[in-house]
Design a protein that fits this description.
By secondary structure, the chain is of the alpha/beta class. It has 2 domains: about 250 residues, Aldehyde Dehydrogenase, Chain A, domain 1; about 210 residues, Aldehyde Dehydrogenase, Chain A, domain 2 (3-Layer(aba) Sandwich), CATH 3.40.309. About 35% of the residues lie in helices and about 25% in strands. The chain is built from 14 helices and 24 strands. A 7-stranded mixed beta sheet has the order 16-18-19-14-13-20-21, sandwiched between helices. A 5-stranded parallel beta sheet has the order 10-9-8-11-12, sandwiched between helices. The protein is globular. The N and C termini lie far apart (about 55 Å).
């Protein structure tokens, strides 16, 4: 068994007893333990602000980009060992582990490229300078973006301990702001091992990146007005963090990316067996089974014209029936367990609640055929397909997310307005997809649904074979969503840096402004 340490204040620290246990969800055996008791979190933040911050701000964007590139290379070089850790602690299949780790290194590489493109600057100018008086051409104004003088505290979810940790870190570090990262305790082992790679390689400047393996203690109570808190997780926890002392009393900047009832819509022009139909079936299957459906971007609701609902349920069920569930280290397994026993209980409770509004069309919440390495053990769950026949009258299918391999299929009347209205009942989504080649339908749906979604996937027959998966988060595109989805934004290329930078209006002599900042 491994005893995890936190990397803070320039060295590795072991917490004091009692320790929290991390389990292998395939066997329910304890694989690691961790604690943060005894850590001085106020000192951790001050170390970031006073040591890491000045160092990063003294670097150009190109130099920060080179740092991110070095991080990506170091992590990729140890990829195989990290995959083994992910399989043991996260219950991830090899493919799911690669998806998580490669997401981390890929995002680091993308922001490294942006840093190189920005070059030898260390601050950004937002737009052109403009005259402020009609009768005086010299008096101008412009907007300057500079790194905030605080620390970025990142509180990450259990499902992507690699990608979640380093996608946030990539943006903050490129902006010139030091990071204190707090992965979810239950799957922190992978984030710890990745941090250890970077420390052992001597990649990161002192104080630029610290990692807390375990409880956050009183960490958040020490945040101030120059600091940033970025959280990924449940909507309820996000609301609690927003109400904390720092955000309320000291205006700590907060970004929340929360779970949501993401949707897939089949357009009225889709026909059983055509390219869009096959892509949609495959997309829903992938989003249900990748990471065992434990993705904030996973499809939870499918809307189809009434004539297509039963054929879709049948086609999806046939695909799911060929899925081998079990310990990801066993040959042939394509979907592993849920991350822990608490998640399994939530899955079963959630399916029971949704079953009050929808019939069970495929799967069982209590019985699962799983390949086990330890008989009777493991947090395995069956894929569940539900059929809700009256989606406008239902409420739980639009508000209760089951964070696992569960989807509800529902009819709509064939119009873009009705499809969008049902999608929007989710109260705010990270991403919704529409499969259709009807341009009028695509436009009408997008205009109605855009305000309720952080991202829309509009897939017609011309891109059906090449479009990225529904749930894949690209660093060049904004990730986040309104309402239920948290109301935040991250990534989106250079847009992501705005969270960590202060936009300041400068007014003065045009020649001086152009010379200093042009």
């Amino acid at each position: 068994m491994v005893r995890l340490q936190s990397y803070v204040l320039g060295s590795w620290h072991t917490g004091q007893a009692p320790f929290s246990a991390l389990v292998d969800p395939s066997t329910e055996q304890v694989v690691a333990e961790t604690s943060t008791r005894g850590l001085d979190f106020a000192a951790v933040l001050e170390h970031a602000r006073n040591v890491g911050g000045p160092t990063l701000r003294g670097m150009t964007f190109a130099e920060r980009g080179a740092l991110l590139k070095a991080m990506s290379k170091a992590l990729f070089a140890d990829r195989e060992r990290l995959i083994e850790v992910a399989m043991a602690n996260c219950g991830a299949t090899r493919g799911d582990a690669k998806f998580d780790i490669d997401g981390a290194t890929g995002t680091l590489s993308y922001y490294a490229y942006l840093g190189k493109e920005l070059g030898d600057r260390s601050v950004l100018v937002d737009g052109d300078s403009e005259p402020l008086l009609r009768n005086n051409a010299r008096f101008h104004g412009l907007h300057l973006k500079t790194p905030r003088r605080g620390v970025a505290v990142h509180v990450n979810a259990f499902n992507f301990p690699a990608w979640g940790t380093f996608e946030k870190a990539a943006v903050a570090l490129l902006a010139g702001v030091p990071v204190v990262s707090k992965p979810a305790t239950s799957t922190a082992w992978l984030a710890v091992e990745m941090t250890r790679v970077l420390v052992d390689q001597g990649v990161m400047p002192e104080g630029s990146f610290q990692l807390v393996a375990g409880s956050a203690g009183d960490l958040l109570s020490h945040l101030g007005g120059q600091d940033v808190l970025a959280f990924t997780g449940s909507a309820d926890t996000g609301a609690t963090l927003r109400a904390g002392e720092g955000p309320v009393s000291r205006s700590t900047r907060v970004n929340v990316e929360a779970d949501s009832l993401n949707a897939m819509v089949l357009g009225p022009d889709v026909r059983v067996g055509d390219d869009l139909w096959n892509r949609t079936v495959n997309s829903v299957h992938l989003e249900m089974t990748q990471k065992t459906g434990q993705k904030c971007t996973a499809i939870r609701r499918v809307f189809a014209p009434e004539a297509l609902v039963e054929p879709f349920i049948q086609a999806l069920s046939e695909e799911l029936s060929r899925l081998q569930i079990g310990d990801p280290r066993i040959d042939g397994v394509r979907m592993g367990p849920l991350s822990n026993a608490a998640q399994l209980r939530d899955y079963r409770e959630g399916v029971a609640l949704l079953s009050g509004e929808a019939r069970l069309a495929y799967g069982s919440p209590t019985e699962v055929d799983a390949a086990r390495s330890v008989e009777g053990k493991g947090c395995f769950a069956s894929p569940i397909v539900l059929h809700c026949m009256a989606p406008h009258a239902a409420s739980l299918v639009h508000s209760r997310e089951v964070f696992g391999p569960v989807v509800t299929v529902m009819p709509y009347d064939g119009s873009a307005q009705d499809a969008a209205a049902l999608v929007n009942k989710g109260g705010g989504m990270l991403v919704s997809s529409l499969a259709s080649s009807d341009r009028d339908f695509l436009q009408a749906f997008a205009l109605e649904a855009a305000a309720f979604n952080g991202r829309l996937m509009l897939v017609d027959k011309k891109i059906a074979e090449v479009a990225t998966p529904h749930g894949m988060v690209l660093p060049s595109m904004v990730h986040g969503g309104p309402g239920r989805a948290g109301g935040g934004e991250e990534l989106g290329g250079l847009r992501g840096l705005d969270l960590y930078m202060q936009r300041t209006a400068l007014q003065g002599n045009r020649g001086l402004l152009d010379k200093l900042f042009g």
